[in-house]
Amino acid sequence: MSYKDILVFLDAGRSTATRLDLAVSLCQRFDARLVGVDVSTPDAFAGEFADVARGLESMFETKIKESSIRGEYRVAETRTSSWKDFYAHYADLVVATERDETSDDLVAKGIPDDIVMSAGVPVLILPSIWGPGTIGESVVVAWNSSRESTRALHDALPILKQATRVTIFEFAPFSDHVDSAPGLVQAHLKEHGVESEIFTWPDVKDVSPIDALFSCLDRQQADLIVAGAFGHPRLIEAIFGSASEDLLHNPSIPVLISH
């Protein structure tokens, strides 16, 4: 498996240029087509960001031409719900940015939270103040032996295969007298040509799973987290169980998340 069709959301917010640059670099890395989907709201064309909103297609086409990649610009239906679901069903990977107060009125509702839950493909979420920076050199897989983390692991394989360092993190991992969960994941990744390290943390009650994960991220100098989204309605509740709100408080680490 590889990413051959990558979708990036475009809007008049300040994070779009960095997000587009990252999506272009991913297309160059995986020889993929880039679909830019304009998710601007009507408000975006009525205020101080109007010129930016009107120039999104030109910005996208210029970047495609400069980068010599295949690309297509589309405009999402933002006034009503649509079976197109912002075109996310027709991609291998979606690139988005976490919502923030400065651009909330400029971006269609449901992005990225609802897309994570409905797209059926992995969504790469960038922190609102991220970048530019590298992604996928040192990757931490947040593992918890669930369907969701299994899906995320396999959705991330194209990136994991190219990473220089992959770490399997698990808080209070499952084990018995025969196997341990992180060890089984490590053996599985090896069959895909991915060498990995294991970082576990016992449940000693005085450290939360999120704090333990951040310790792992710092020690491994991670630039990407891979995690599964659970069935909660909001993204901030979805990444790492009930403690996931804390995860997106980290302003520097992108998350590749699958549901």
UniProtKB/TrEMBL annotation:
InterPro entries: Universal_stress_UspA (IPR006015), UspA (IPR006016)
Pfam families, sorted: Usp
Domain UspA, chain residue ranges per copy: 198-257
Family: Belongs to the universal stress protein A family.
Name recorded for this polypeptide: Universal stress protein
Organism placement in taxonomy: Bacteria, Pseudomonadati, Pseudomonadota, Betaproteobacteria, Burkholderiales
